[in-house]
Amino acid sequence: MKHLYFVRHGLSEMNKQGIFSGRTETSLVQEGIDQAHKAGIKARDHGIQCIVSSPMHRAKDTAAIIAQEINLPSEDIIHNDLFIERGFGVLEGTTYIPDIDFDTIEGAEDTDAIIIRAEQGLAYLRSLPFDTILVVGHGAIGRALRHAIDPEIPFKGSEKFDNASITKLI
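Now predict its structure.
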């Protein structure tokens, strides 16, 4: 793998409502669908050979739209649990509060665990026979991947990913 791009899923119903979704399934709203189409159009310039996606609906649907825009058959999308969203524990389904320390939240996936998962995800991506890969996932796993690639970039407090934004990680 020579190039790695990351896209956070398009705007979901729970994002729009300002609710922690975590591992709760939630659908894209029309704005999120439109965002995914725009991301796909932008992705045409990057020579994407493979899309790896979280299997969660909001990421899967975003990945399928991007694949359509870059003429990649949707059946070629690889879904991998390593790229699911962080579990938010007892906060799932509650109103979003910025800058929470999830290491203190009952039932939430702790920081060490998500970073280890990102490192495993990165090793998996490097094992694939493609030069240019796009991962479609969620905010926390995107930040963890960025940290796994460059430990100088902190996981906590690092820049967040906008919905359906394309970020070059490698």
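The mean pLDDT is 95.
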